[in-house]
Amino acid sequence: MSIDMHVHTHISDSDYSIAQTLGLAESRGVSHIAITDHDTVSGVGRALELGKALGISVIPGVEISAFDFKRKKKAHILGYNFVLPAPAITRLCAPLLMRRRENSLWQLATLSSLGYDISPAEVLEKARHSTSIYKAHMMEVLINKGYGQSDYVTLYRQLFGKDGLCARDILYVDVHEAIQAVKEDGGQAIFAHPGQEESSFDLIEELWDTGLDGIELHHCDNSPVDKAKILALAKQRHLILTAGSDFHGNYGSKVDLGDLPAMPPHTNISRVLDFARTQAARTVGQASTALCPPFPASLPATSQG
Fold first, then answer.
1. What is the mean predicted confidence (pLDDT) over 236-260?
2. DSSP string of 184-228, one letter each residue
3. Of 28, 45, 90, 230, which residue is most buried, by most CB within 10 angstroms?
4. Is pLDDT above 60 for 241?
5. Residue 299 counted as domain residue
6. How far apart are CA 156 and CA 124, in angstroms?
């Protein structure tokens, strides 16, 4: 049994479709996979259908772009095994997707004003399956036109990094509200890649009372020191420990899909799989592929300038 609990598709910011993603999982011998697109569950129904046809166990998932307002740090939450149509998650994330879209349009306008050869229509074509426009879509257009081909990372930092030409954060949702939404929809809430933010471990202790179920242990951004901290926290509270590649297709994934040990050490993913089986009957027949529609096929005239 091979497991990957953190995988994105072109519903958010990967260039792989759901079918391509699950096809790759099948070819790499991944038996259990969680589709965790950013701030949307709109691809989960389709993934469940295709997974069943391929003999792959698909775990309903989402990655919510959350924020710790006390420490002013990002704090992403993975949600698993919620019951579709997951109204609480969708209600919480819909305004966030709108903010992301508007910010992306501002970034596009800024790039154009700075002389970059890029238009909303071109980027919209790359993002046609997604629930929003992401920086990865803009980068693909720029790279295809010859910008930054010798150094992708430098171009990304120049444009979108902390002091980049188009750097501007959007308002994420409160991390406590993210956990509450996952729980309200009957799911399990997991703290994603805590190694990305130094203050995450102080926050995690505060999230126990909110209903946090677990922590992502194996992730490329978690150092050995981070993992030791995670194991200590998990022992105190009997938390679920998961593992994921954070796969984004060709859009900058550090680890390939399923490129994890067949059963990553110290994890207890069986607690997610057991919970999934108890939810299966409630999910059958409720899956929807249109909970949050893809980005519109055309832009308002006022947004194209």
1. 90
2. HTT-EEEE--GGGSTTHHHHHHHHTTTT--EEEEE-TT--HHHHH
3. 230
4. yes
5. no
6. 19
Of 170, 205, 224, at which residue does a domain stop? 170
Task: Provide the number of structural domains found in the chain.
Answer: 2
**Residue 119 to residue 305: CA distance in whole angstroms:** 9
Distance CA 9, CA 231 (A): 29
Tell me the average pLDDT across 10-32. 96
Q: State whether 185 and 267 are in the same domain.
A: yes
Task: Examine the domain organization and report whether 126 and 30 are in the same domain.
Answer: no
Please state the rounded mean pLDDT for residues 105-123: 96
Distance CA(128)–CA(184), nearest Å, equals 30
Neighbouring CB atoms inside 10 A of 121's CB total 10
Q: What's the chain's average pLDDT? A: 89
My answer on whether 77 and 188 are in the same domain is yes
3-class secondary-structure state, position 180 = helix
Share of the chain above pLDDT 70, in %: 90
Task: Give CA–CA dist 269/212, Å, rounded.
Answer: 15
Whole-number pLDDT of residue 286 = 47
CA-CA-CA-CA torsion sign (13, 14, 17, 18): negative
pLDDT, tens digit, 9 for 90 and up, residues 281-291:
555 444 444 34
Domain that holds residue 102: 94-170
> E-assigned strands of 103-172?
none
Place of tokens 């490129």: 259
Counting every residue written for the chain, the total comes to 305
Kind plus residue range of the DSSP H or E element containing 34: strand 32-35
User: Is residue 279 a part of any domain in this protein?
Assistant: yes
pTM: 0.90
Per-residue DSSP letter, 171: P
Q: Which two tokens stand for residue 120?
A: 């909303």
Q: 72: closest CA among 168, 167, 197?
A: 197
Q: Is the same domain home to 222 and 252? A: yes
